[in-house]
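Appendix B: a complete holo record

For completeness, this appendix reproduces one full record from the ligand-bound portion of the collection. The bound molecule is flavin-adenine dinucleotide. The inputs are the chain sequence and the ligand SMILES; the output is the full three-dimensional arrangement of the complex, encoded as structure tokens. No fields have been trimmed.
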Amino acid sequence: MEQLEVDVLVIGWGKAGKTLAGALGREGRTVAMVERSADMYGGTCINVACVPTKDLVHSAAERRPEDNAQQWFTQAVAGRDALIDKLRARNHLMLAEIDTVTLVDGVARFVGPHEVEVAAGPDRLRIHAESIVINTGTVPATPDIDGLATSARVYDSTSIQHVDPFPRRLVIVGGGYVGLEFAGMFAKFGSSVTVVDHHAELMPREDRDVADAVRALLQASGVEFIMDSAAERITDTDESVVVGVRAAGSTRDVTADAVLIATGRRPVTADLGLDAAGVVVDDRGYITVDDRLRTSVPGVYAVGDVNGGPQFTPVSLDDYRIVLDQFLDSGWRSTADRVAVPSTVFLTPPLARVGLNETQARPSGRDVLVAVKNVADIAAMPRPKILGDARPDQGRRGSRHRPRARRDGVQRRRAGGHQSHRAGDAGGRHGEHAARRHLDAPVEHRGAERGAGGARVHRSRRVIARRRRGSTAGPVDIRRAEGPTARSPDARPAPYR
Ligand SMILES: Cc1cc2nc3c(=O)[nH]c(=O)nc-3n(C[C@H](O)[C@H](O)[C@H](O)COP(=O)(O)OP(=O)(O)OC[C@H]3O[C@@H](n4cnc5c(N)ncnc54)[C@H](O)[C@@H]3O)c2cc1C
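The structure of the chain with flavin-adenine dinucleotide bound, as generated:
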């Protein structure tokens, strides 16, 4: 069996892993990057999650009701695919052009604490490294629903992006962030969408006024919600699929053309051979790490979704910083100072948030100050005016909640106008002064930029097209293992998407 010895082995081409491989490779460390699928160079975010879904959300929002749904969707998917192909090739090139980085195609599995076997068809490669970084991510979880496994009309968040024909009726099982994003997207593409969710209320961790605004927004697009319910059975018929939904003690059949299962994700750890290495996982299969992302085995780290932290790409990127710091610097960085992780639900308009919300802050025993303001009413927020979409109905509702400040309170903005933006920070490390700053212009700007997810993607698309013009380099065939590749003298590291 072929053997490879490197300083650092990275398993999985996720955000943290690829960035770490590039940084350490450029520092002259020998690095092996193992990825199990050539369709996943660059990881989940650029191939099947953040970027393609935002591209589709943007395309859906541009459709007018009179546009043919099937044609619009087909064109949107073609645009999505072209964008993703470019990003994937670029991600591959970024590592392929570093002399000290060896790219390996295959499925990695631990055979010892510092020893991994990579399988690609009949080929096997043994890799030994004193430092190993696990970045294998998560995949959609499959709930136990009668008929799900045999139905030809069931999709997950990856496969639904290429659903064909376009579903005129779509049932989404799961009303979490992923489910809602697809609900908004498919409603705008022209589907009649029904969301089935077991919670009594939508978005139970959000403040009620925000969750209600989201629900009203989606209902205005025609999305129907069946809350406090469970999908119990899925049955294909010749022309459609029937979902048996139990709600309020009785069962109701919902007929659709496709069913999207969006009931969460599970870590990719089951087949990693973690037992052979002695790497400990929790009861859900996530790898247990300390605040430096060290696993139970010295020299083995777990980064990104697989370590059970918040499942966002910027969090995976921050994991990279924490591990890199231990390789190249003092190792002071840790997850302990992550006090306010921003997030966005890419509805149209999007819902963005940073820090604690009121629902989380009140039980924490801190003083809470609440402020509410319509984004559409903010003079320095021209986007609603540019788009001609100031949502007068929500604007009126918002004006009843004129900005107010309570001495006891979380600072809060409610944006019933063009976009909903929550800014709450219960002090913590930053204290009240920092919390107040969240209410000022910079946060609103950040909200606006993140809110314009589609525009951001399209800007990037142009940049990438420019950068790649004239370049003949495409994806490199690395069927099994690839040695050092020539690096052009003027090649400069560029940030990953
Ligand atoms: C529909 C959807 C939309 C999302 N939108 C956003 C968004 O807008 N913004 C945001 O911040 N986050 C978003 N997320 C979450 C985001 O995609 C993840 O948090 C992020 O991609 C995590 O990446 P990671 O670093 O954990 O690794 P990943 O990018 O998941 O990479 C893991 C890699 O490991 C490979 N792998 C697995 N096992 C092996 C093995 N044994 N051997 C070799 N290779 C292996 C996999 O093929 C994969 O390429 C979204 C998620 C979904 C599902």
